[in-house]
Amino acid sequence: MKTPILLSATEAEIVRALRRKGQISRTQVADITGWSKAKTSTEIRALIGKGYLIEYDEGVSEGGRKPKLLRFNDQIGYVVGIDIGATNVDVILADVLGNVLQLLSEPADVRQPPAEVMAQAAALVKLVLDLQGAQAEQILGIGVGVPGPVDFTRGVLVAPPLMPDWENYSIRSFLKQDFPGAFVVVDNDVNIMALGEQRYGDAYGLEHFIFIKIGTGIGSGIVSNGKIHRGSNGCAGDIGHICVDKQGPICKCGNRGCLEAMAAGPAIAEKAFRAAQSGESDILRRMMNENDGIMTPELVSAACREGDEAALEIIRESGQMIGDVLAGLVNFFNPSHIFVAGGISNFGNHLLVAIRRAVLRRSLPLATTFLQINFSRIGATAGNKGVIALALEYLFVDEDKPFLNV
Amino acid sequence: MKTPILLSATEAEIVRALRRKGQISRTQVADITGWSKAKTSTEIRALIGKGYLIEYDEGVSEGGRKPKLLRFNDQIGYVVGIDIGATNVDVILADVLGNVLQLLSEPADVRQPPAEVMAQAAALVKLVLDLQGAQAEQILGIGVGVPGPVDFTRGVLVAPPLMPDWENYSIRSFLKQDFPGAFVVVDNDVNIMALGEQRYGDAYGLEHFIFIKIGTGIGSGIVSNGKIHRGSNGCAGDIGHICVDKQGPICKCGNRGCLEAMAAGPAIAEKAFRAAQSGESDILRRMMNENDGIMTPELVSAACREGDEAALEIIRESGQMIGDVLAGLVNFFNPSHIFVAGGISNFGNHLLVAIRRAVLRRSLPLATTFLQINFSRIGATAGNKGVIALALEYLFVDEDKPFLNV
DNA sequence: AAAACTTTGTTCGCTAATCAGACGAAGTTA
DNA sequence: TAACTTCGTCTGATTAGCGAACAAAGTTTT
Questions:
Q1: CB A186 within 8 A of CB A390
Q2: Contact A238 B331 (CB under 8 A)
Q3: Measured between beta carbons, which residues in chain A are less than 8 angstroms from residue B235?
Q4: What is the tens place of the pLDDT at every residue in A169-196?
Q5: How confident is the model at residue B33 (pLDDT cuts 50, 70, 90)?
Q6: Which of A15, A75, A96, A300 registers the highest number of CB atoms within 10 A of its CB?
Q7: Residue range B345-392, pLDDT digits in tens
Q8: Whole-structure pTM over 0.70, yes or no?
Q9: What's the helix, strand, coil split of chain A in %, to 5?
């Protein structure tokens, strides 16, 4: 099967309307597009004939005949999302409505050679297919998220710090071997989380926002004028190495005082380790001892919940540094919303309050008056939702506007 | 006359093609659009009939009959640009091809009430009309640049720090009184410089770049995915108050160590003043004495050209601080180019080198490998070109896509 | 419960948009 | 000078798309 599915300009407009509304009647399509009912009707008949749309239900009457509601035909096939994290691979099987049908997650190590990791991912894809009783040929498209900078049009990583072996490795080519009928779209993991938030989260319909993920590293996804801003090399949003303190500790990137080195998970664990050892915090010390002497950000989170002052202070410091950096970005970019996600977001409101306070203190009033800073409520699943959203984004494309050589 | 000129979707496509090429033959239009020659011919005949296009010359033969080249009809009227700076108002009269016909500049003080400044601008517009022997009715559109945050759709300033009286003052309404036939588009001055650079400068066709203006203040215009990024409140690009030193001097915004307060014109003059007084630099002292004891950035610039080490060090410091901030923005935004303009750009290569060095040191390799940082070669005139580009941008609009209530 | 209205979606005839191809005009090349 | 090219127009033929009428399936009024 040829994919992505090419649509004429008229068909593409119907699909756009349908995507916005989820379900739609013929009359609504005519209203939205401005076409005559006649044209609308024949166009939709054609789309149903091709198997892309189906009449699935009757809507409620508004004083007359009930409308027949249309939606995408979930029988035409599946989309797959592959969310490659630093330590895990998630594989999601969904129908073309975006409903998640199967979800598998496995530990994985992206420092391994790309062929191995991708083979693992491909095996998982075959597994979810089996679980669903589906065939590989039924996969229409695959969206892939990777924790590194991506050349979006080529579907290739460029100079990824976490996974140097992946340089110039073509994820698209690999997946094309096992799933020749499917198109493959690859993007950076944080961009994908931002996309997920925009499609299925609180960022729905927003024009300008920043999605920031704080875990082992710190990265961000940027949406400008409603579209993902990837930058000229696909590495936009890499805020982890913005300098917060010229005298700060040396980061693995070689510079001093990077945000990531001072405020992310490892830095938090490091500070907590010292607080535990020095006796500054009994709670942290106890927790660390119960954990074989290993300090983790999760323990700090637990200590916060118990009200441990040292742990709280560590979190506040992180929040302030993150907020200081965000303050500059708010001045520069003027987003309407900032969404915070990642392991660190489990630290709760203390972190958020510290971030907000730092941003408000250092940003211009005009930029902060309507600014909202919140945790992503879909947080941990934003990536999973995003890879599906990415695949669905390119499931139907306007034949007049070719965009990438999938 | 009704303006902006509304075009059907087909007509709009021809206009887009024409804007890209500047001049075009019917056959080229048919090739670009994919329409039949018949349709192309009749559509163009209609546009000529309405007076929007003219056949102005014959092109060179490519082995057969010579094409008749089309372009916009410069007889249909004029566009006006009003570039309001902190200390000057520039008024430009141009034809619809973007050729500057008249240009007047007058000192002005934006701290005056807006009605006065706008009256001055309107008088200048009438003056350029007289000089050209043209009538007010012939003005099709007016592009306005102002040194403050603009709500683009309303054509109104919001919370402008330099010009508080302008809050909620409608530039559009004022100009509509004197020039009821013209549409009015208002934008921030740095956005406009970025637009000028994109249309008439070295940024031609670039997708992602930052235009930074360094003068009394420091501001930037951002282009993402080929379009001006204005942010959710229209104040994106306001990088002058990003913090470079938490222990720095207090800025007029109330915070400490803002980039603007430490690296812009006044800070440079201040440092030079001290160098002159302390005797650290004889050249600066002499120059200041010859200037009635008043130190200005221009004097520092002159001292640099004479090789004064103290002056050069001041410039290097400014460059480094600007570069430090830009480094963060490069990581975040990943532009392909940064263009530097404003009074400070007269300081020459020492400044640029210091900026580049700081950016290269602190930004990620991937983001800097292909990054170019240069002075805007159209620099001082970028704003003038930008206001005309802005007016031309909305001269013809697609009737199906209303965008602003001009 | 029948009659009158409403809304949805299809059918049908007509108009206008648009195409392919022929053609004349105006060049260049052999 | 003849042969070929390219540009733009013109001419039927086709088709896309509209409005209006209509059938289907509701709801509201009487």
A1: no
A2: yes
A3: 334, 364, 366-367
A4: 999 999 999 999 999 999 999 999 999 9
A5: very high
A6: A300
A7: 777 788 999 999 999 998 988 899 999 999 999 988 999 999 999 999
A8: yes
A9: 45, 20, 35
Whether cis (ω within 30° of 0) applies to the bond prior to A4 is: yes
- DSSP letter string over B149-179? -EETTTTEE-S-SS-GGGBT-BHHHHHHHH-
- DSSP letter (8 states) at residue A256: B
Residue with tokens 């901030």: B325
3-class DSSP state for residue A228?
A: strand
Q: Which residues pair with A218 in a beta bridge?
A: A214
| Interface with chain B: mutation pick from A333, A338, A361, highest number of B CBs within 10 Å | A333
**What distance separates the 2 farthest-apart alpha carbons in chain B?**
79
Q: For residue A334, what pLDDT is reported?
A: 97
Residue A383 burial class via C-beta count within 10 angstroms: exposed 0-12, middle 13-18, buried 19 and up: buried
The answer to whether the CB of A151 falls within 8 A of the CB of A234 is: yes
All residues of chain B having their beta carbon less than 8 Å from the beta carbon of residue A362 are 241, 243, 255
Tell me how far apart the alpha carbons of residues A249 and A255 are, in angstroms, rounded to a whole number: 8
Contact assessment for residue B56 and residue B70, using Cβ atoms and an 8 Å cutoff: yes
Backbone torsions φ then ψ of A29, nearest 5 degrees = -60, -45
- Name residue, tokens 């640049």: B145
Region for B22 from its dihedrals, namely left if φ exceeds 0, alpha if ψ lies in -120 to 50, beta otherwise: left
Q: Which residues of A68-88 are buried (b: 16+ CB within 10 A; e: fewer)?
A: ebbbbbbebbbbbbbbbbbee
Query: Tens of pLDDT along B98-137?
Result: 999 999 999 999 999 999 999 999 999 999 999 999 999 9
The secondary element (H helix, E strand) that includes residue B186 is strand B183-188
Q: What is the mean pLDDT of residues B256-283?
A: 92
Query: Which nucleotide is nearest to B26 if distance is taken from CA to C1'?
Result: D8
> What does the alpha-carbon distance between residue A356 and residue A371 come to, in Å, rounded to a whole number?
10
